[in-house]
Design brief:
This protein is of the alpha+beta class. 30% of the residues lie in helices and 33% in strands. The relative contact order is 0.12.
Length: 319
C-alpha cells in the first residue's frame, strides 16, 4: 500500500463532501449548527471553523485536513463509494476516521438512510462533530506551538517544575510568555505575551486562580471572581456581562463551567474577547479558574484565542 502524503489546507477549514441532492439542503446552513460564532468585538463575530461544500470532483479535495462527509445511503453517488472506501462498510450513524486519504487528517461521517434520517443525525451528533474537529485543531496547534521547545533549548523543564513545586499546578508556557510582575500572590498567577513592538502592553494574557472550596462556583460567582481579578491585576478590566455565553464542558476529566464573551476597560478605552473555565478537584477540595483574554486591535482574534486555549490545555495539577 503506498504511503500517505501530508494533508494540505487550512486547519480551520472543513471540507464538506455530499451528494448533489443534499447540497441545497445543507449548503451554508451547517456552519451555524456545527461551529457557533462568538463575539470578538462589539460589532464582530468569528467562528473557529469555515465550511466549503463539494458535490463533484471529490477526489481532488480528499487531502484536506478536515473532512465531513454527509452520506445518503439511498442516493447513488460517488460520495457513497468514497464513504465505503473510508469506513469499509456503510452503516447508518456517526463515525470518525483518521488519516484516510492523507496524514494528519480527520474524517467525520454522518450516514443516514435518507434525507430525513440525515437531518435527525446531524442534530443528534452536532456536538460530537464539533468536538471531533476541535480536539484535532488543538492537537495540531499544540505541535506547531511547542515544536521549537522540543528542538531548541527555548524552554526549561526546570521552570515548569518550579512552578508546580511552588503553586501545586503548572502550565507549559512558550518562551514568548512571561510572568506578570504584579502577580506573586500564591492564589493567582498571571502570564502575558508581550506585543511585538511594545515592551509595556500585552496582547495575550492567561491567569490561573485557585481557592480551597467544597463545591464548584456558580456562573455568577465566577463572573464576580473574574472581575475582582481584573480590578487587581488587569488595570480594572471587567466582563461585559450582556455578551457572556455560559455552558458546561469537561476539563481534565472534571465537569467544568465555561464562559465566553467580551471584556472592556473604560478608563483605557480597551477591550476584546475572553474565555474562562472553572472546575473543582474534589480530591483536594480545590477550585481552579483559568482565564485568558486577547487585546489585538485591527487583527483577527480567533487565532490568538486558539493559541491561548492550546496553552491552557497543558494545565496540570497532579503528578
Amino acid at each position: 500500500m503506498p504511503s500517505l502524503r501530508q494533508s494540505i489546507g487550512d486547519h480551520r477549514k472543513i471540507a464538506v463532501l455530499l451528494s448533489t441532492s443534499l447540497m441545497s439542503s445543507y449548503k451554508d446552513s451547517l456552519s451555524g449548527v456545527l461551529s457557533p460564532t462568538y463575539l470578538v468585538s462589539p460589532q464582530i463575530e468569528e467562528s473557529l471553523f469555515t465550511f466549503s461544500y463539494y458535490d463533484s470532483e471529490v477526489r481532488i479535495h480528499r487531502r484536506n485536513p478536515n473532512i465531513l462527509m454527509i452520506v445518503d445511503k439511498s442516493c447513488n453517488s460517488d460520495i457513497v463509494e468514497y464513504a465505503r472506501e473510508a469506513t469499509g462498510k456503510i452503516s447508518s450513524g456517526f463515525q470518525i476516521k483518521d488519516n484516510v486519504w492523507a496524514k494528519d487528517q480527520k474524517v467525520a461521517l454522518i450516514i443516514g438512510d435518507d434525507k430525513e434520517d440525515i437531518k435527525k443525525k446531524i442534530e443528534q451528533y452536532k456536538n460530537d462533530i464539533h468536538e471531533t474537529f476541535l480536539v484535532s485543531l488543538y492537537a495540531r496547534n499544540h505541535h506547531l506551538l511547542y515544536q521549537q521547545i522540543v528542538s531548541t533549548p527555548t524552554y526549561s523543564k526546570d521552570s515548569e517544575k518550579k512552578l508546580f513545586d511552588e503553586l501545586g499546578w503548572s502550565i507549559l508556557f512558550p518562551n514568548s510568555y512571561i510572568p506578570h510582575k504584579q502577580s506573586q500572590n500564591p492564589s493567582v498567577r498571571v502570564f502575558a505575551r508581550k506585543r511585538e513592538l511594545d515592551e509595556t502592553n500585552f496582547s495575550r494574557i492567561l491567569s490561573v486562580y485557585k481557592e480551597k472550596r467544597e463545591s464548584l462556583w456558580t456562573f455568577d460567582e465566577i463572573i464576580d471572581r473574574r472581575n475582582i481579578l481584573g480590578e487587581k491585576f488587569y488595570l480594572g478590566d471587567k466582563m461585559v456581562e450582556k455578551t457572556v455565553k455560559r455552558d458546561t464542558t469537561f476539563f481534565k476529566g472534571k465537569k467544568a463551567l465555561r464562559l465566553a464573551g467580551l471584556w472592556e476597560n473604560k478608563e483605557f478605552t480597551m477591550g476584546g474577547p475572553f474565555r474562562t473555565i472553572a472546575f473543582l478537584d474534589d480530591k483536594t477540595s480545590t477550585g481552579f479558574i483559568i482565564d485568558y483574554y486577547v487585546y489585538a486591535p485591527g487583527k483577527s482574534k480567533t487565532d490568538f484565542l486558539i493559541e491561548l486555549e492550546t496553552i491552557a490545555r497543558t494545565f496540570r495539577y497532579d503528578r
